[in-house]
Design brief:
binds S-adenosyl-L-homocysteine; elongated; alpha/beta; Rossmann fold; 15 strands; Vcp-like ATPase, Chain A, domain 2; 274 residues
Length: 274
């Protein structure tokens, strides 16, 4: 679908060296570059991917930022999750259109945006964030990216400590990016439906050990798995075909678990569990 650029939109201008310059289109404004210029009015109405020429002929391609571009450059409070992990989380948490999902914490909202994409128009995302300033910034980042599509009946952000409990019932998925997800395990037992998925992103090994032990001891989860992902970009330039010299060596580990409902025999063994 071709949607021409509008005033108020952020666009990326990419030159032949591959450098990106960001700019928010505004009627009457001018984009300046190295003594050359182009009125925003000449960019408004153009299609994504168009080539444009500045006043003395320097050419750029203009692009609508992808979700990866947007999340990497949006204003941040907390550290965001990187695209390589954001790409995997919706698949491993099996977020589907129409799902009821709990998320915590929100941070700058990068993961929130991906979850909103995945739940579609009929899903519900309830996001918990401890810090009011982070929640406000995240909401701005989210609205900037998603507007004008309505959020009101599918996205609920609240300033709340998820370690104290989850209010929502019949939750399909719980997705966590905070330091002590094991503290959410008792609430997940209560609110996650059978077959539901618990996913946590954690940067260090001791955190995973504590979480996995909590999930195992709860005896309400199966398929408890942990993995990490390494993304190694390649340099392909003539005969120089090799991995890039630098890469992000570590971001974090993803742990997933499936909520199960045991036969009554097992339930009797431990009355606290359902
Ligand atoms: N996934 C986010 C980054 C999250 S950073 C992104 O992609 O942008 C971790 C966030 O968890 C921080 O904002 C922190 O304030 C929040 N947090 C930590 N403990 C919490 C708790 N108990 N309940 C809710 N939010 C919490």
């Amino acid at each position: 679908m071709i949607v021409p650029f509008q005033s108020g939109e952020e666009i990326h201008l990419v030159n032949k060296k591959g450098r990106t310059y960001r700019c928010t289109l505004k009627t009457g404004a001018t984009f300046q570059f190295s003594g050359e210029a182009i009125p925003h009015d000449d960019l408004i109405g153009k299609e994504d991917g168009s080539e444009i020429a500045l006043s003395r002929g320097t050419r750029f391609f203009i692009f609508r930022p992808t979700m990866a571009d947007y999340t990497l450059h949006m204003p941040r409070g907390a550290q965001i999750l990187y695209p390589k992990d954001l790409a995997l989380i919706p698949m491993w948490a099996d977020i589907y259109p129409g799902a009821t999902v709990i998320e915590a914490g929100v941070g700058s909202g990068a993961l929130t945006l991906c979850l909103l994409n995945a739940i579609g128009a009929k899903g519900r995302l309830y996001s918990y964030e401890l810090r009011e300033d982070f929640a406000n910034r995240a909401l701005k980042n989210i609205e900037n990216r998603i507007s004008p599509s309505p959020l009101g009946d599918r996205f609920f952000i609240q300033q709340k400590d998820i370690y104290e409990g989850i209010e929502e019932e019949d939750v399909d998925r719980i997705v966590l990016d905070l330091p002590e997800p094991h503290q959410v395990v008792p609430h997940a037992i209560e609110k996650l439906r059978a077959g539901g998925i618990f996913l946590a992103f954690l940067p260090t090994v001791p955190q995973i050990e504590i979480l996995v032990r909590a999930l195992q001891e709860a005896r309400c989860f199966e398929q408890i798995e942990t993995f990490e992902t390494l993304l190694r970009p390649w340099n392909i330039d003539g005969r120089s075909v090799r991995p890039n010299l630098r890469m992000v060596a570590h971001s974090g580990f993803i742990t997933t678990a499936r909520r199960v409902k045991r036969l009554p025999k097992y339930r009797d063994e431990n009355a606290a569990l359902t």
